[in-house]
Amino acid sequence: xxxxxxxxxxxxxxxxxxxxxxxxxxxxxxxxxxxxxxxxxxxxxxxxxxxxxxxxxxxxxxxxxxxxxxxxxxxxxxxxxxxxxxxxxxxxxxxxxxxxxxxxxxxxxxxxxxxxxxxxxxxxxxxxxxxxxxxxxxxxxxxxxxxxxxxxxxxxxxxxxxxxxxxxxxxxxxxxxxxxxxxxxxxxxxxxxxxxxxxxxxxxxxxxxxxxxxxxxxxxxxxxxxxxxxxxxxxxxxxxxxxxxxxxxxxxxxxxxxxxxxxxxxxxxxxxxxxxxxxxxxxxxxxxxxxxxxxxxxxxxxxxxxxxxxxxxxxxxxxxxxxxxxxxxxxxxxxxxxxxxxxxxxxxxxxxxxxxxxxxxxxxxxxxxxxxxxxxxxxxxxxxxxxxxxxxxxxxxxxxxxxxxxxxxxxxxxxxxxxxxxxxxxxxxxxxxxxxxxxxxxxxxxxxxxxxxxxxxxxxxxxxxxxxxxx
Length: 471
What we know:
It is a single chain. This protein is α/β, with parallel strands linked by helices and 471 residues long. The chain has 12 helices and 18 strands. It has 2 domains: 30-179 and 320-410, Rossmann fold (3-Layer(aba) Sandwich); 182-311 and 413-447, Response regulator (Rossmann fold, 3-Layer(aba) Sandwich). Helix 11 (355-374) packs across helix 12 (379-386). It is globular and about 65 Å long. A hairpin with a 5-residue loop joins strand 14 (390-392) and strand 15.
């Protein structure tokens, strides 16, 4: 009996160890500090507390007007959250003194000529230290060119085209902390070919600019790599801010497709999904940005069931693994419930602070952490810290900045959208669902970083002789 008890004890220890290390993340140079997080009770994205004077100045370059104005509001709330927290902690020690973080709106209105003017004004007149952006890879290219011309840091949190960091466009001052299009395309192909292994016929419908084309090429390349039995039964590209998707959807109906693959972002994402369901097209979408909860509620539970999203923010189930993570989530969610009364911040879009919003928040924290460790706003000192750096998000995910071309290496995750009664596997705290009026994340699958290493341009001299994992 004594030996049996001892054996059970040893087995229990082994199982406990395996359980605790099964989802272990790699080590990181720095991490979000839960213990130092400030009291955020006075945070309101509609009425931010913006310091002035001798500050660390960051321009949020985005579409605060025009057809994608909502995107600018998303960026603003996300970046302001991180800045408010750091300011409440006392700011950042740079160049021998503590400085607060000042964010400035820089509206490009989705127009290239306006993007150039506003980015230059931010640098030359506002004297910003960082350009933070933006929606539209064509506009991010302009932001990066401005940063390179005037030698200030540019952080790309949201534009995904791989050519932003290729041999032609690379700048030492530009860092792509977001995922990239080739990664996303290959990641979704990995899911369908290596995990799901069900649907084989895909129709590609993307926006007609660099991001849409690179994303589609990544998906096709990924299918050849991970799912050679799959077929592309149709491929189309549409202009930005389209209002009538019927001609494309008619072609999809006739194609025999089993999945629609798209990279569309709002407002195109909303119009595409709503019109598809209105035309009785019930096919699942493999997507990135068909996740804005207000339009998902318009489509409803059944119309959103089976959507498949690839995410740079999610982690393995469940979403809330530690008391610290639960407290962090509830801080945002409680403020949304009780204090945020101004549109659009009082809408469902901002309810959880996760998804793409969560990613923009985390990337901003990483930027500010890099500046803190550089102890300077000098771009050369920031570059020295950020190249090859790694950082642990609040979700325990580790992201690494590849030194040679400034692209982010990270695990990605696939979210399968399911009805409310199945969302508990992801949303593991009361009320045990993300939303009741739409399907949302249930099963979540990891696409390991090694399977979706970002594309590296072989013609970029800095990367010659380097491996894609940064070594």
